[in-house]
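::Encoded backbone::
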Amino acid sequence: MSKIKASLTERRYLVTFAFVTSLFMLWGIAHAMSDVLNKHFQNVLQVSKAQSGLIQLSVFGAYAIMSIPAGLFMKRFGYRAGILFGLGLFASGTFLFVPAANAESFNMFRLALFVLGSGMATLETVAHPLAALLGAQETSDQRLNFSQSFNALGTIIGPAIGSYFLLRAGSQEHSDLSSVKTLYVSIGIAISIIAVLFSLIQIPHLSVEHHVEMGENSPIDKPLWQQSHFVWAVIAQFFNVAAQAGTWSFFINYGHEVMGFSDEQAANYMIIFMAMMALGRFVGTFLMKFIAPNKLLGFFATGSILSCLVVAQAWGWVSYSALMMINFFFSIMFPTIFSLGLKSLGKHTQQGASFISMGVVGGAFFPLMMGLVANHNVAKAYYLPIICYLMIAFFAFRLYKIKK
């Protein structure tokens, strides 16, 4: 008799799963807007491409500092408190944009982005294991990819909002930062409302035992750092987010310098760029019904490598189309690496989620490296992410295996 395939989630978890999935969209908006902010600060504050990479250092650097404390906070106070704490930090970061804009200080903006990034780090640390717990472990890959599909929708909304408020305004008056204040205060108010609504949601009681019951042959008695699939997942996530941050940070620069677009046109194409990621996640979630998640991850990593090679050649629309495809292939990487790393961790699941989230710090450094190359040739900078995708492919085909 064939085994019945488990559903994506259970009826008792639907409301919680829907709300948690909305959080994925929220930080997707913020991440994508930071890439538009990257170009806006180049125009308004007269910073170089390499200096603008410090924006990503501020945001992703927060993950290195906050992920472990967020995991400890979640373990002590629970999922609800963790999410409310993350939303509080998130909103506080957006409101700090007001004094930063008034002072016209790039360093103050970086401080605001660090606080905002701390909120996102907290939310990601809590939301990923929570989404993984809301159903059978065998469908956790699909569940995280489904939630991350809405994260991808957020990355479509982010550039659209950022282009309208920032780059269009910047094209008219290069010294104007009022649009930045208006935009981020509005986001802060929206986040505050979401926090109030979330405090009213009933979250089912979920324990470590729930996750253990869903595992098969769980090596939960082994120390976390002796579980090689988890260790390699942390490393793979580091390289994955490094590639993502670098690719996104200089997308608008590529459109402007290689394709000859205005900043606003390039930002509008970024909407299509992010739509490719949303498409990839929905397609990936469907394909995982038929293809093992690790194999699909490996195939997509290979596609990213080939795409980067074409992008670096600056062959006009051929290379620009390949740049769009990088985001399609990138789509399933973050949630799939996360899910593969969490499998069979049992009582170590929450702590493991903290360390995998901390792997996001890769995004803090790679834009700086790509920026140094992009200062001379933005197309050639896209050779660098190939290193990252090779590591991800190796993890997908060999290093993901759970060892007893």
Summary: Residues 140-172 form the longest helix (33 residues).
